[in-house]
Specification:
Elements lengths: L2 H22 L5 H18 L6 H16 L33 E2 L9 H8 L4 E3 L17 H8 L4 E6 L9 E6 H10 L11 H5 L4 E6 L1 H4 L1 H4 L31 E7 L4 E5 L5 E7 L2 E6 L12 H9 L28 H4 L1 H7 L4 E5 L4 E4 L4 E6 L3 E7 L1
Parallel strand pairs: 1-10
Antiparallel strand pairs: 2-11, 3-4, 3-5, 5-6, 6-13, 7-12, 8-11, 8-13, 9-10, 9-12
Bound molecules: 2-oxoglutaric acid and fe (ii) ion (FE2).
């Protein structure tokens, strides 16, 4: 067997074994049906439904099992109220100013043409407020409605979630979880979070669940029809001169679309990615903090040794640990008045903060981030965002 074949045959074997096993153990009972669907979802999540036509086959099988044995009916005339998940309607609409940035992210109105984006506006971050306000995901198919999200999935589906608000925490882990149960946690939103959205550590102990960086659209293709992929992602931008590590995603489309769904208080600590990113806010408000690639040496990034220590402390994880040397130790969202951040990270406060920019996105707002820019996100309410890496 060649090396190439050995790299890609295991996902195919896993996928086919999962299909056969789920069908073999299916006896029409409620529990065997749910177990079969879970196994099929796992083949998508863990092995990418590898192999010619396997994704379509798996999605068709899941739908058949749902309709035959779990009384799922697809009533396309249903309408969904845009009742918000969680407690977002109860929160005051004021922004919490960040101490860690002095300026706002520049905004453009009207949005640039494709050509103007390609030639001029893809060099630095940019917000297009209300760009996506008329997307189905915000209107007739509201992703803020847990009942809509349950409906398009049908019963017994599984998704990967991160456990713990912040992936730098020692007890952070990941698990597969029932989609309906995960949505219920967002509806209840009984996490008892501090109302001042204090540091990630304070929130981390609450075991917040975050569906982060997951390609939901492979599992639930209906959701892809609720968004309108902006043409900008098909531009071929120049690699930025201050960030030679830029590399487009390695899939055929050179485009990776991920969903990010979680309650108030979920945080992605400041980190860099090697992609251009178009990030659209669909549900709830999210505060964004950005800093340019040239401040990297003042970001107190984790080094390789920290990363290894963290990895080995977390053997239960089923996905690669995202903590790498592109992640900062600094809590850019710190709101505690006299914390010791300026003493622990003096170069950050002197050299990064003057160059950092921030804003709070609302549903329909689009944010563009070039590769290599440091970015940190905080959900101020139950939040659903979509990132498009290209
Ligand atoms: O929304 C988040 O929590 C993080 C998003 C992010 O890091 C990205 O889109 O690259
Ligand atoms: Fe990122």
């Amino acid at each position: 067997m060649s090396h190439g074949a050995s790299v890609c045959c295991w996902p195919r074997l896993y996928t086919d074994a999962s299909i056969i096993r789920s069908l073999a153990s299916l006896d029409g009972s409620f529990s065997s049906s749910r177990a079969a669907i879970a196994r099929l979802d796992r083949a998508i999540i863990v092995a990418g439904a590898a192999g010619e036509g396997r994704l379509d086959l798996i999605l068709t099988l899941i739908r058949r099992i749902q309709t035959e044995f779990l009384s799922y009916t697809r009533d396309s005339f249903r309408t969904f109220s845009s009742r918000q998940m969680g407690d977002m309607l109860r929160l005051p609409p004021s922004n919490i100013p960040l101490k860690s940035s002095l300026h706002r992210i520049p905004a453009l109105d009207p949005p640039p043409s494709f050509m103007a984006f390609q030639t001029t506006f893809n060099r630095s971050p940019l917000v297009l407020y209300k760009y996506a306000s008329s997307w189905p995901a915000i209107n007739e198919h509201p992703w803020s409605s847990a009942s809509y999200l349950r409906f398009i999935a049908g019963p017994a589906r599984m998704v990967p979630v991160e456990v713990g608000a912040d992936y730098r925490a020692d007890d952070w882990t990941q698990q597969l979880m029932n989609w309906d149960d995960f949505l219920s946690t967002l509806e209840l939103n009984d996490y008892d979070l501090p109302t001042n959205l204090a540091t990630p550590t304070a929130i981390g102990s609450k075991k917040v669940l975050y569906l982060a960086q997951h390609n939901l659209f492979t599992q639930f293709p209906d959701l892809r029809r609720d968004i309108v992929i902006p043409d900008y992602v098909y531009s071929c931008p120049q690699p930025p001169s201050d960030y030679p590590q830029y590399k487009p995603p390695g899939n055929d489309e050179q485009l990776v679309i991920n969903g990010w769904l979680g309650p108030r208080g979920t945080i992605s600590p400041a980190h860099t990615d090697p992609y251009f990113n178009i990030y659209v806010q669909i549900v709830g408000r999210k505060t964004i903090w950005l800093a340019p690639p040239y401040v990297s040496e003042y970001m107190y990034a984790f080094d390789k040794n920290d990363v290894q220590a963290h990895d080995s402390s977390n053997p239960a994880s089923n996905k690669a640990n995202p903590l790498t040397s592109n992640t900062s130790r600094v809590d850019v969202f710190t709101t505690v008045k006299d914390d010791d951040s300026p003493r622990r990270f003096p170069a950050f406060w002197t050299n990064v903060v003057p160059h950092a920019i921030s804003t709070t996105l609302e549903p329909g707002d689009l944010l563009f981030i070039p590769p290599g820019w440091w970015h940190a996100m905080r959900a101020d309410e139950t939040s659903f965002s979509v990132s498009m890496w290209f």
